[in-house]
Write a structure and sequence with these properties.
transmembrane helix, elongated, membrane, 2 domains, mainly alpha, single chain, 0% strand, transmembrane
Length: 113
Protein backbone atom coordinates (compact mmCIF):
# COMPACT_ATOMS: atom_id res chain seq x y z
CA UNK A 1 0.00 0.00 0.00
CA UNK A 2 1.19 3.47 -0.76
CA UNK A 3 1.63 6.18 1.83
CA UNK A 4 -1.44 8.10 0.57
CA UNK A 5 -3.62 5.02 0.96
CA UNK A 6 -2.45 4.52 4.55
CA UNK A 7 -3.17 8.16 5.37
CA UNK A 8 -6.66 7.76 3.90
CA UNK A 9 -7.30 4.60 5.93
CA UNK A 10 -6.09 6.25 9.15
CA UNK A 11 -8.22 9.37 8.57
CA UNK A 12 -11.28 7.22 7.79
CA UNK A 13 -10.67 5.18 10.97
CA UNK A 14 -10.36 8.32 13.09
CA UNK A 15 -13.60 9.71 11.62
CA UNK A 16 -15.39 6.41 12.26
CA UNK A 17 -14.20 6.37 15.88
CA UNK A 18 -15.17 10.03 16.35
CA UNK A 19 -18.69 9.46 15.05
CA UNK A 20 -19.02 6.34 17.21
CA UNK A 21 -17.98 8.32 20.29
CA UNK A 22 -20.46 11.08 19.35
CA UNK A 23 -23.27 8.55 18.98
CA UNK A 24 -22.43 6.96 22.34
CA UNK A 25 -22.35 10.35 24.08
CA UNK A 26 -25.75 11.27 22.62
CA UNK A 27 -27.18 7.87 23.57
CA UNK A 28 -25.98 8.35 27.16
CA UNK A 29 -27.57 11.80 27.32
CA UNK A 30 -30.86 10.42 25.99
CA UNK A 31 -30.76 7.57 28.52
CA UNK A 32 -30.17 10.09 31.33
CA UNK A 33 -33.45 11.78 30.41
CA UNK A 34 -35.24 8.49 31.14
CA UNK A 35 -35.92 9.55 34.72
CA UNK A 36 -38.04 12.40 33.35
CA UNK A 37 -40.25 10.15 31.21
CA UNK A 38 -43.02 9.74 33.78
CA UNK A 39 -44.16 13.32 33.32
CA UNK A 40 -43.59 13.68 29.58
CA UNK A 41 -46.52 11.67 28.31
CA UNK A 42 -46.74 9.30 25.38
CA UNK A 43 -44.87 11.55 22.95
CA UNK A 44 -41.80 11.66 25.15
CA UNK A 45 -41.79 7.92 25.62
CA UNK A 46 -42.15 7.28 21.88
CA UNK A 47 -39.28 9.68 21.11
CA UNK A 48 -37.07 8.08 23.78
CA UNK A 49 -37.67 4.45 22.90
CA UNK A 50 -37.84 5.12 19.15
CA UNK A 51 -34.42 6.80 19.15
CA UNK A 52 -32.85 4.00 21.17
CA UNK A 53 -34.38 1.27 19.02
CA UNK A 54 -33.25 3.01 15.83
CA UNK A 55 -29.73 3.33 17.20
CA UNK A 56 -29.50 -0.32 18.23
CA UNK A 57 -31.41 -1.78 15.26
CA UNK A 58 -29.01 -3.12 12.61
CA UNK A 59 -30.95 -1.70 9.62
CA UNK A 60 -30.04 1.98 9.12
CA UNK A 61 -30.23 4.62 6.43
CA UNK A 62 -26.43 4.63 6.29
CA UNK A 63 -24.12 1.65 6.89
CA UNK A 64 -23.07 1.06 10.47
CA UNK A 65 -19.49 2.42 10.28
CA UNK A 66 -21.12 5.79 9.51
CA UNK A 67 -23.06 6.83 12.61
CA UNK A 68 -24.28 10.18 11.34
CA UNK A 69 -27.89 9.04 10.91
CA UNK A 70 -27.90 7.54 14.42
CA UNK A 71 -26.47 10.77 15.79
CA UNK A 72 -29.15 12.75 13.98
CA UNK A 73 -31.97 10.64 15.40
CA UNK A 74 -30.51 10.79 18.92
CA UNK A 75 -29.95 14.55 18.71
CA UNK A 76 -33.50 15.09 17.45
CA UNK A 77 -34.91 13.00 20.29
CA UNK A 78 -32.77 14.86 22.80
CA UNK A 79 -33.94 18.24 21.49
CA UNK A 80 -37.58 17.11 21.57
CA UNK A 81 -37.28 15.71 25.09
CA UNK A 82 -35.52 18.87 26.30
CA UNK A 83 -38.35 21.02 24.96
CA UNK A 84 -40.94 18.79 26.62
CA UNK A 85 -39.09 19.10 29.93
CA UNK A 86 -38.90 22.89 29.60
CA UNK A 87 -42.62 23.11 28.84
CA UNK A 88 -43.42 20.85 31.78
CA UNK A 89 -41.29 22.92 34.16
CA UNK A 90 -42.83 26.17 32.92
CA UNK A 91 -46.32 24.78 33.46
CA UNK A 92 -45.47 23.64 36.99
CA UNK A 93 -43.73 26.85 37.98
CA UNK A 94 -45.93 28.93 40.26
CA UNK A 95 -45.16 32.24 41.86
CA UNK A 96 -45.86 32.70 45.57
CA UNK A 97 -49.41 33.90 46.06
CA UNK A 98 -50.46 33.00 42.52
CA UNK A 99 -53.75 31.11 42.43
CA UNK A 100 -53.82 27.65 40.89
CA UNK A 101 -56.63 28.48 38.48
CA UNK A 102 -56.10 31.21 35.87
CA UNK A 103 -58.13 34.34 36.38
CA UNK A 104 -61.26 34.91 34.31
CA UNK A 105 -60.36 37.35 31.49
CA UNK A 106 -63.97 38.66 31.36
CA UNK A 107 -63.76 39.82 34.95
CA UNK A 108 -63.12 43.54 35.23
CA UNK A 109 -60.53 44.84 37.63
CA UNK A 110 -61.17 47.75 39.90
CA UNK A 111 -58.36 50.28 40.19
CA UNK A 112 -56.70 50.43 43.55
CA UNK A 113 -57.08 53.91 45.17
Amino acid sequence: MSREAWVLVVVAGILAIATLVGAVVLAVRVVRTRRLLTGLGAGGKVAFYGALIYTIFPVDLLPDPIYLDDMGVLAGALIYLSRLVQQRRAANRRLPGQPDAPQDPDRTRRPVP
